[in-house]
Amino acid sequence: MKNISNIRNFQTLSSVFLALGVIGLLVWVVADEVRRSELSALRLPVAGDLGVNADKQASLRQSISVSLASAPLDQKLLAQFLILSEDGSERAKGYPLLANLGWRSTAAQQLLLAEALEGQDLREIMERSDGLLRRGRYSDELISLMLAAEQDPAGRRWLVGALRSNPPWAGRFFGRSSGLESEAALRAHGILLGDLMDAEIAVGRNQLRSGLSAMVDRGLFEEAYSLFERSVPVKADKRGLVDPDFTLAFAVQRSGEGSHPFEWTVTSGPGINSRLVSAGDKTFLNLRWDGRGNPLLLRQFFRPQGLDISQLLLTSRDGDSAVLERSAQIFVSCADRPTDKVRFIPAEQDDGSLLYRAERPLSCDFAKLEVLGLARGFGNRELNIQIDRISFI
What we know:
Structural class: alpha+beta
Strand order of the largest sheet: 1-6-11-8-9-10-7-12-5-4
Helix content: 40-55%
CATH class of the largest domain: Mainly Beta
Distance between the termini: 81 Å
Radius of gyration: 29 Å
Number of helices: 15
Number of domains: 3
Low-confidence stretches: 1-51
Number of strands: 12
């Protein structure tokens, strides 16, 4: 019973060690050299700092020593002993032994993580975090730690090596955007993604999507587009609008994966049922809309590279161009200057095509095209529209 009580005491202590370790690394990994030297002088709390008096420590230490003598390879007992030990030589010998006993004990890995933090051993910190993540423990905290560590060049190098083997935590790592709020974190994440591509490590669409979306939301368009261009075969019109004939959008829809910001985002929801359709060698957008409100139907960020944006040609099924003229409104804005926005006005109509002209020419490095529904004149009549191609000319 005494051993069970000791283990419970240890579990409480080690949980505190882990929390302190995660918080400490988040600070350490982004600190300058002066701050790091200050942090290196700090020691993690010992049992006495957590309300265990000296007599109790001695009693626990004696009890654990007896148990450890009969089970010297018990990771939990050894970890308990190291927490309570005041002998520097014992600790110096004990930690390497604990590290060599494998990954069986979550508690032992927590203690080793805390020790690695105290020694500012980033590689050991990452290795122990990897071990805990593989055991499915403390995933949220440790993924946050990984995202913080990628801001350090050494941390990025470790991550490139670890991600080469596609560890079980890779999906959670790439899927998390909550640790990418700051510009520095996003830039570091972009560098890591580029490093993975440089190392010819496959980076899938799902692995890219959270990072690219966060970069675009933060205004890091150049960094996001550079990664997008390296990962997706880009077919664009003269003003940089990607996938004017919806071929890529259809492939993305068929894969079940989400779209990137520099691809077509097709709205589907209450009152809207839009789908990409392939018929023979032709792909088109089939837009079904109940005619209510002025919803966003279609959107894409694109890179015109400073060229004037003034004319857009929309091709549709025969007979649909007249409906499109009355049912859709098109806007283009500069991505980094959202208030710099122009409307495109229907100018010329031909069978199956409709030419739009901008109210005024617009020049941007990065822009956003939006197609919105226009209910005026239609009441609540349902629309069924086919769009074959959208391109700037």
